[in-house]
């Protein structure tokens, strides 16, 4: 009887994970535990919203704050507020690239960690990060932000996620306020409290520096934000076209608990692809999927170090990379290695990159499987891979970094 109860709870938990995502699963699990504790000890559980509650209550964006008057300083100082980074975080990798670009231009940056219940030694966070991120002078400044007005004076302050936009908006500091936006974060949640709390931050009149043109257009059109965007690139020191022979493998990027990555759609598409091409090896990357019943032969790579990725990409003729919000960084990295990315069509992806070697297809299993099939069966597949790699030679994070530095300098020095 006890075994049946455990099995039932596991089934319910799995359904919540699949249908509602990891955040909802975590919140409901905590609520369940806290309700049991509460019955025994009469304790109440707290409301979890990611941002500090006092910051959300103070953020009245209908009241205009004093305008930033600009500065004539040659060397600028910036405070960056961010959630604590972990090992291999793509979002933090991008942030650190642009902090590095500002440092290379002679400016000073500081890093403040922010969370509703911020805690944990910074040394432990640095240890978890390892050597996977660019080396920054700003790393030495990393500290928890206990209160929004605890920051040192700066010419500009950056929000880097929706919860960090609240202390940036509320801070009494006289500084230019920026919002480094890498995705449309309301889409991370069902319509409800979290969706609205995230969406409201686009009404704070922060200057948006966005990852790609889709976000810049969306935030300007729907929320009236001032925006400028940077182009995606590939790190050519890491991703290189090396395997010039025909390839008999494909890969798929998956994160089962991240709804925007379309895990179930990817599985359905690959089921059909495997029916068409049973001789192709299918590689899973991005998450350990050993707990899932995958209905075709595959290789589970879980997560790989950066230097291992290029080796895998060079084995593959194509890669399935789904995103239902802002486009992933992987498509350009795959192209640099000579693998053709198959991506679901839509403005959220096409407005980020119109590279002709990205195979866009409708978000249905038949169309995506057919696009993968066409990519691996071209008569000129080797030549096509070579041309695909050449197509991204003109992109670089160094160039995008210089573009962003220019935008930030101009916005910080001028009167609003």
Structure, described:
- With 416 residues, the chain is an alpha/beta fold.
- The protein folds into three domains: 1-46, no CATH class; 53-233 and 398-413, Rossmann fold (3-Layer(aba) Sandwich); 249-395, 3-Layer(aba) Sandwich (Rossmann fold).
- Helices cover 41% and strands 14% of the residues.
- It contains 14 helices and 13 strands.
- Helix 3 crosses helix 14.
- The radius of gyration is 23 Å and the shape is globular.
Rg estimate, integer Å: 23 Å
Could you name the ranges where pLDDT drops below 50 across 5 or more consecutive residues? none
Specify the CATH class of the largest domain. Answer: Alpha Beta
User: What sort of overall outline do the alpha carbons produce when their principal axes are compared?
Assistant: globular
Structural class: alpha/beta
Distance between the termini: 68 Å
Instruction: Give the oligomeric state of the chains in this entry, treating copies of one chain as homo and distinct chains as hetero.
Output: single chain
Pattern of helices and strands: HHEHEHEEHEHEHEEHEEHEHEHEHHH
Q: Helix fraction?
A: 40-55%
